[in-house]
Amino acid sequence: MPPVSGQTLLIGWLLLPFMAAFLAALLPPLARWLALACCLATGAVAAAIDAGALPASLHLLGPYGVVLQPDALAAPFLLLDALVCGAVVLDGWRRPMPGPFLLLLMVLHGGLASAFVAVDLISLYVTLEVVGISAFLLILITRSDRSLWLALRYLLIGNTVMTLYLIGAAVVYLEQGSFRLEAAATAGAAALALLLVGLLTKAGLFLSGLWLPRTHAEAPAEVSALLSGVVVAAGVVPLLRLAAVSPALAAVLPLVGVASAGLGLLFALFEADAKRLLAWSTLSQMGLVVLAPAAGGLYALGHGLAKAALFLVARRFPGRDLADWAGRPLPAGVWGTLWISSLSIVGVPPLLGFFAKSGLEKALPVPTAWLLSLLAVGTAAVYARLWGAPLRQSALPPGATAEPEPAWSPGVVLLLAALVLLGAGEAFRDWSPALVPAAAKAAVVLAVGVGLHRLLQPLRRIAWLRLPDLEGFPDLVGGIGVVGAGLLVWIR
């Protein structure tokens, strides 16, 4: 019997989540195992890509058909997809999952995997729509009135910008005779601006991402982990691919990234709600991911793992209001997750976030690298706000008869272990004496960030210093319009 070709393996892997979701609808008791199998398969594909064991490009249905590129850029995003979705499955292993959650999770997982390797505009449109619709249904899973409005708002914004994206794809084909991303890079300003409006909104960047904080904060914890951990990356990967071949986008994308990082950071520094703080931080960190295509994958991996862990433990927070945390001790599973995950995002060694941030600094010009250090100080000040609650010493809080959940969730343990082990792997692979001053710099950034947090603490209590609400529906539409108009003017 001849060996199975790499092309056949790739096609089978891409179809697996959708076939598993169909089978789970027929045999619900198998849903958890099927979802876990899909995650393991994606993790194996990511490892095979890293080892060079799979074809770097795959063409289907002729020159105008589907083009897939499972390359080095896609590998860290596929690993992120596998680990975050797998962690969500493990986190809810002993709990009854609401409605068709696992079925939708598999569809989302398959859509994300396809979006990470697709390099033609129509395939990207289809996969991003699959991701958007499955995310919409997952937000709706609790079926409350508030989740209904947030899900509808998410769907309406997503469908609107993807309609603009589709128009841009049609214009690219009329001008260039191709749907490849390389054709989009040489298309006119109007076509490229329409494509970018869709991708920037899906990625949750700058004013196009104002939908993100409220949606991610109000969704159920496991859905928030998926949204902030990996769903926003579906719009980032095409942006990074386009930036690598389009000089116009390569010039404008860092500006959008810095603006997004600053906007999210400013609101996170003064946000009183713990989940909204995490959501604003996602908007900020995704801005850093797009600063350099060469380093964006590892940075997205480090951020996504840590942010998914933080949202998974959000259901065990002592409350949403950070002002009440100081006198409410946290169980070890929550306290340890807060510290490890947030320190990784800040960039403290030996966690994965440190090596991701170091790689990003190396890929940036000196002025932007210094700006990244200033933003890192602000990030440390944001996450220092989560370190105010003490560790609970007793096994149970006073008056409690049983712990509602295990101290350490299996899914959270998987994510934290990945942050540590992948960090160790990066240290082994890229060790150099330059990492020593980088570690010292990280310690200084952390100390200055904690000082900034303490300096800002009294200001957060002043009512007139509250930042404006930019998350109303007119604000979302206006923000997208401003970004689209700005892109059209800049690219011209």
TrEMBL record:
Main location: membrane
NADH:quinone oxidoreductase/Mrp antiporter transmembrane domain: residues covered: 118-372
Any Pfam family: Proton_antipo_M
Record's signal peptide: none
InterPro entries in the cross-refs: CPA3_Na-H_Antiporter_D, ND/Mrp_TM
Superkingdom of the source species: Bacteria
Subcellular location: Cell membrane; Membrane
Keyword Methyltransferase attached: no
Keywords: Cell membrane, Membrane, Transmembrane, Transmembrane helix
Recorded topology in the membrane: Multi-pass membrane protein
Transmembrane segment boundaries: 6-26, 33-53, 73-93, 100-118, 124-142, 154-174, 186-211, 223-242, 248-270, 277-301, 332-356, 368-387, 407-424, 431-452, 472-491
Role description: NDH-1 shuttles electrons from NAD(P)H, via FMN and iron-sulfur (Fe-S) centers, to quinones in the respiratory chain. The immediate electron acceptor for the enzyme in this species is believed to be plastoquinone. Couples the redox reaction to proton translocation (for every two electrons transferred, four hydrogen ions are translocated across the cytoplasmic membrane), and thus conserves the redox energy in a proton gradient.
Family: Belongs to the CPA3 antiporters (TC 2.A.63) subunit D family.
Name of this protein: Proton-conducting transporter membrane subunit
Organism of origin: Cyanobium gracile UHCC 0281
Lineage: Bacteria, Bacillati, Cyanobacteriota, Cyanophyceae, Synechococcales
